[in-house]
Amino acid sequence: MKSAHRGIFFALLLCLTNSSGAVDLVVNGNVPIETLSRSTVRSVFSMRMTSWPDGVPIQVFVMGDKTRLHASFSKEILGVFPHQLRRAWNRQIFAGTGQAPAKVDTEQEMLDKVATTPGAIGYTSEELINEQIRKIAVE
Fold it and tell me: What is the longest distance spanned by two Cα atoms in the chain?
């Protein structure tokens, strides 16, 4: 019995090890932010925070609800399920108080949009650091 528990523990640990760091939050290279709190990231991706501290509008890019990357981002970074995020967007749309983020179909399209859109934010599974896109830390 104890060895079965130990096996389950190591299997869970392996899953957590493989999933951590799999998704990075990225911004357009001109966004003057180095780190964001988890609650700020939630505000941005729930479309409640619409501009950066310097006044530049935030352009949020996401992938479809059923993609692996979006599911990983929602769970690991935001701490919510994709359907919960979708429900928040729908409430704002139907209430006339907000809109949904821009949807992209591929990770490459996400990277291209974030690189070329001022104030853009998105996520990636690739390790990417250059002058057009920067990874930012989530506290």
Answer: 59
